[in-house]
Design brief:
The chain contains 18 helices and twelve strands. It is an alpha/beta fold.
């Protein structure tokens, strides 16, 4: 695949001429720890962020935005926008809660927590939205210890837990709703979490080391391969609908940190013998690098050093994180009765070059938090239609089994302290502008043959964003002082209404309504 040129990659089709595919999903995303509240306080379940919350350098998550107690309000708000998908998580630390902070034997299951999760999911179904359930979103219970993902045995323990959760919750959901939850995300961004733990140090860890990150990658993919089979087996045994099982990746310009994960779990279904994986990865890497070399040249047209640094970073990453070394996951893949280990390609599309870009804005805060020197703060990330387009088309390259693609996360952030005033983005881009062009690019990709089947925005309401509330991502602002959801974003934008208008116009098929919704 050559570089990216709009006239070559995407046909010049007007938005009002596009049609949504049947069953296209428009939704919002959240995760348990970031939204539920009630973790790590006195008498609360403890997770592996407990010590970090009390380290002094990170905000206490506290009540967060109260999703655990007020999920009904969030679900009703999402449904009022005309959405038909709602992604949420099930938190292991709540299902098997511990109130001490040290590694220990697995505690008893909390059936009341399972009942509540099932009730929330059933309410999503009743509101006419497809529940998309994440089984792991960066967090493990405190009793699992800090370096959980360095142990193959602990990875298998997660498989046992997660497969039981799927069955326990679906038995309850089926009883309430007459159907099951069928869209399961095993891991949120398994390509990114080990890097944030053992390379940039942004998540709890003991020893920073590239080798630890690679081992965690291997064990997380091992767990996915095993869990994929267990979920399908459970649905078959129970006579439930065929599930959709996948992980979502943080899209990155580096092959080893993105596309390689999807290629590995599909290699066997493509007829690739285990001994031929090295050549298979090399071929796919070449196509991927071609696309992102072109994008780097577009991004830095007058900065050859920026392009060169991007290439150097990708080459070094390829040396340190060669997917051929993912031996445990590979062994499980080739031992399974099911050749393929993923049912769709969920993509979290942000700034694909944020990994490997050094933050040159050195200040008092960044010196206190060295991990912030590794990349720019979220509200300075670059969001461009050209980048969005390249990610979608690059992931569809060699998509010979035509797996559906979902934009599972994407958003635009602004800076706002927990009880402070919102600051406009440095680039001046608004959520209205972002929603219009990102949804537009998604549909243009679909018109060009990319099998995009959904667009899911992160998030409905501002949330706890891994150590602070200052990165604001939601369509709606959360008022922490009063514990309420405001009717606009922190910048005063009617972002939810913009999303609602776009979705409604596209579903209506009315060209005039579509032109108005997209500001044409």
């Amino acid at each position: 695949m050559r570089g990216i040129h709009r006239s070559e990659r995407v046909p010049d089709v007007t938005l009002e001429d596009l049609e949504l595919s049947e069953g296209f999903l428009f939704g919002v995303s959240n995760s348990g720890y970031q939204t539920e509240g009630g973790f790590n306080g006195e008498g609360d379940p403890k997770n592996n962020w407990y010590c970090w919350e009390r380290s002094g350098g990170r905000e206490i998550s506290g009540a967060s935005i109260g999703f655990w107690e007020s999920a009904e309000e969030h679900i009703e708000l999402a449904a009022s926008l005309g959405l038909n998908a709602f992604r949420m998580g099930v938190e292991w630390a709540r299902v098997q809660p511990t109130f001490n902070t040290r590694p220990s034997p697995p505690p008893a299951w909390d059936t009341a927590a399972l009942d509540r999760y099932a009730d929330i999911i059933a309410r999503v179904v009743a509101a006419g939205m497809e529940p998309i359930i994440s089984l792991h979103h960066f967090i493990v219970p405190a009793w699992c210890g800090t370096d959980f993902w360095l142990s193959q045995g602990m990875a298998c323990r997660f498989v046992e837990y997660a497969s039981r959760v799927v069955e326990e919750i679906n038995l309850r959901v089926a009883e309430i709703s007459g159907r099951t939850a069928d869209f399961w995300i095993t891991f949120n961004e398994p390509n990114l979490l080990p890097l944030m733990m053992y390379v940039t140090g942004e998540h709890p860890h003991k020893n920073l080391w590239f080798g630890n990150a690679a081992a965690a990658h291997d064990n997380m993919l091992l767990a996915h391969v095993l869990l994929y089979d267990r979920i399908h087996d459970t649905h078959e045994r129970r006579g439930w609908s065929e599930p959709t099982v996948a992980f979502n990746t943080f899209t990155a310009a580096t092959y080893e940190f993105d596309r390689a994960f999807f290629d590995l779990v599909r290699a066997r279904s493509f007829g690739i013998d285990r001994g031929d994986l090295k050549g298979f990865f090399a071929e796919r890497r070449k196509a991927w690098d071609s696309a992102f070399d072109g994008l780097a040249s577009w991004k830095w047209p007058n900065n050859p050093s920026g392009v060169a640094l991007s290439k150097i970073y990708r080459r070094v990453s390829g040396f340190l994180f060669d997917p051929v070394r993912l031996q445990s996951a590979t062994e499980a893949l080739y031992a399974s009765e099911r050749p393929r280990k993923i049912d769709c390609l969920p993509l979290d599309i942000y700034d694909p070059f944020v990994l490997g870009t050094v933050n040159l804005n050195i200040n008092t805060r960044s010196l206190r938090n060295p991990h912030e020197l590794m990349h720019k703060p979220w509200w300075e990330w670059s969001h461009e239609p050209e980048q969005f387009r390249t990610v979608l088309t690059a992931h569809n390259e060699h998509n010979i089994d035509n797996l559906p693609i979902y934009v599972m996360e994407n958003c635009i952030a602004h800076h706002q302290e927990r009880d402070g005033r919102a600051e406009p983005r440095p680039d001046g881009q608004s959520r209205k502008e972002y929603l219009r062009w990102s949804i537009g690019e998604t549909l243009r990709a679909a018109s060009s043959g990319v099998p995009v089947k959904g667009y899911v925005y992160w998030s409905l309401v501002d949330n706890y964003e891994w150590g602070s509330y200052r990165s604001r991502l939601g369509l709606y602002e959360y008022d922490h002082a009063n514990g309420t959801i405001k009717d606009r974003s922190g910048l005063g934008e009617a972002a939810g209404e913009v999303y609602k208008e776009i979705v409604g116009a596209l579903r209506s098929g009315d060209p005039e309504a579509i032109r108005k919704a997209f500001g044409l």
